[in-house]
Q: What sequence folds into this?
DNA sequence: CGGCATCCGGGAAGATACTG
DNA sequence: CAGTATCTTCCCGGATGCCG
């Protein structure tokens, strides 16, 4: 009881490998556990603190989040960094390998959205909906567009720069935006994916639209979910 | 004990949802459990029987395989079909949604191969290596090619039709092949991804090469693993 | 043999409470 | 705020046995 306190159990995340050279099997080793990919999703737009991650993942326990972060660090998907004083807080940041998982996350999302069981009206995190824009953009409809749009979801702000079929998204206020949406990710999703009229949402105060209203109407029409399969 | 025999426990695969509209979360609901995606991989080239699936997934227990197949059926990823008599065996076949997961599997494989932890020299299933050809083909090097190649791994045979940057793969003997490899998936991988000289493998009897030897040399050079990240 | 049910041991997930 | 400790519950994986 009083001995061996220092040598905490040396168990790595898992040692039950699939023992399979297939890349898919390796991927399941890396991100196949519950919550894993959703954590990576939350880190996709830059470093985050423990509490911020937890807030974006409703239902996860601190317990599991700690384990996953440890596992990711061990497998080279993220690094923990300590910000310099005075803000000496610890943040978690993806490595290049971690950021490279964006294509995986997008493909998974595009695929799952084809399932009849998928319900786009559930709540979702700010990072989720911003990432969905990069996934679901219809390149045809966005042709020739070059604008900066701001988003505010409570404390979190994003800046999206649409340039043709490419959307560059960064965290933080968009000072140079010609249009800004303020609300919850859910109401924005209702407008973009649920076909809810912008005016109604704005009237009800669920979604505040500042700036170019015509652009807002065009923006929400830029995205479309894939057709259901089966 | 004697009552209620028919009403088996109504528990679906899981009811602990992420409660997240993000497509990635939905995808994790569908294929986020252990072994799930590897089972889909094994089904990628057509219907399979229970025992065939088990053989391609070293380490899986019949128990878990049954559970996954039930779950997949409930979520519309596969269907169980009974072949007409006299071969009244049951087979599992992907639905369109299931087949659509190929892009997901390929992206996951491509991503995980960039991890320094990935070891391409582990054993792998016939379906794995055939799928890896579709993932890792270098379109440049395959330009202008139009050939049919056969593969035999024990009982399993495949026919691959390379046409430009596209590889169409079907199960079964390739009667019209101009080249055929016979061996284990592992030795073929050693030649294609491990850089092992074809001649040495052929001499040792690990990989039998019949037909156009020059094409064989070109074939194994068509594929390349992505560079490691981090 | 193929497929499914049942039981069991170990371990991971989830909730809660606690600590620096 | 950022985790850790603990406890309960559930899932994974192996073994066995039943039935076509």
A:
């Amino acid at each position: 009881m009083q001995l061996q306190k220092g040598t905490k159990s040396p168990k790595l995340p898992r040692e039950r490998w699939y023992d399979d050279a297939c890349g898919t099997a390796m991927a399941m080793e890396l991100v196949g556990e519950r919550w894993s990919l959703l954590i990576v999703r939350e880190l996709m737009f830059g470093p985050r603190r423990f509490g911020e991650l937890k807030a974006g993942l409703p239902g996860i326990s601190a317990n599991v989040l700690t384990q996953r972060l440890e596992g990711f660090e061990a497998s080279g998907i993220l690094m923990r960094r300590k910000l310099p004083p005075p803000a000496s807080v610890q943040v978690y940041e993806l490595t290049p390998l971690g950021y490279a998982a964006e294509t995986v996350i997008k493909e998974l999302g595009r695929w799952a959205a084809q399932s009849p069981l998928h319900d786009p009206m559930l709540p979702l995190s700010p990072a989720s909906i911003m990432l969905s824009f990069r996934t679901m953009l219809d390149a045809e409809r966005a042709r020739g567009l070059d604008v900066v749009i701001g988003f505010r979801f409570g404390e979190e702000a994003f800046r999206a720069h649409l340039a043709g079929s490419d959307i560059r998204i960064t965290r933080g206020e968009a000072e140079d935006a010609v249009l800004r949406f303020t609300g919850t990710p859910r109401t924005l999703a209702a407008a973009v994916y649920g076909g809810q009229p912008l005016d109604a949402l704005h009237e009800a105060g669920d979604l505040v639209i500042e700036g170019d209203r015509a652009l807002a109407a065009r923006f929400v029409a830029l995205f479309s979910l894939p057709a259901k399969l089966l």
Remarks:
- Chain A touches chain B through 58 residues (CB under 8 Å).
- Chain A has ten helices and seven strands.
- Residues 1-14 of chain A have pLDDT under 50 and may be disordered.
- The radius of gyration of chain A is 20 Å.
